[in-house]
Predict the 3D structure of the following.
Amino acid sequence: MDSTPKLRLSGPGSLIAAVPHLLGFPPEQSLVLVGLSGPRSRLGITMRADLPFDGPDHAPSVAELEPLVEALRRDGASQCLAMVMTDCPDVDGLAPYVDLVANLDEALFEAGIDVDDIVLVRAGRWRSYLCPDPDCCPSQGTAVPAPSGELAAYAAYSGSVVRDSRTALIEMIAPDLEAISATERALDHVCREMAEAAGAGTSEAYRERIEGFIDRRVRAVAAGTARSLTHRDAARIAVALIDRPLRDRVAGYCLQQTASAAESVWIDLLRRLPAPLDAAPATLLAMSSWARGDGAMANVALDRALDSDPGYSLAQLVRTALDHALPPATVREMLAFPAAEAG
């Protein structure tokens, strides 16, 4: 008998309440699209995009909305519930972002995706942009319900964590300038170690020792017995991850029971490493987060990787996959690629 909690959400209110769990954080100033499919409106992909920074009068065009809609289509969505989450007030009796709503409606129509509803979510209340009946959708809106016990059970079972905001995710992996300075000093020593190994013809053995250390580190973190990482060890791992075959092998942790421990190691490195050395652990964190369905952390980590090294091709590959709403199982396929194809 399957004891997995079933998540059943019906109506805009319950879906709005679930959005922080679906995204990993409560969105602000955001357009959120939830894909639905089948006669029972099965929950599919959930996507978030920033609302225009210039305000409600600057709506994205139909063409600019097409990538989001295409991701819904690729995921098999037959319907979409869209949410405009904002603190912008009404203007002259009109809800904010009405032009965006009109363009989104057109983009969904052109893609053959039915509109379940498009709602305004503001100050803990929601109302439909599409329903003209004040008895059904009063102008002051309807209170967003508290998350259901069913949602709480599902979140606990799946291990999903809701952070305070997307900013909280960014802060989790934010660089520590003092630690980075110490790692940079340690890199000088590690570079000398590498030069000595190269001179002695033992470079491969040197990399194998570091890979062994990474494995022991992940297992120690998983067991709760890990000590603080030294700056030289952080520098050694950073340099070792430049080697593509080694990087691709340790990426495999995301498919093992030690995935969470490996993520802790990558996060620790991200607080210690200067650019562009942080691109590798950021991408590894993104892949692991994606593999377990945490798109919020995956995207934040990818932003870090590509800000650090815009040409980092493995990060570009993962970004393309996420932008096209490919499923987390795609990680397994990516790890099967030869290292030369995803540098």
Q: What stands out?
A: The chain has a mean pLDDT of 88. Residues 78 and 235 are 49 Å apart (CA to CA).
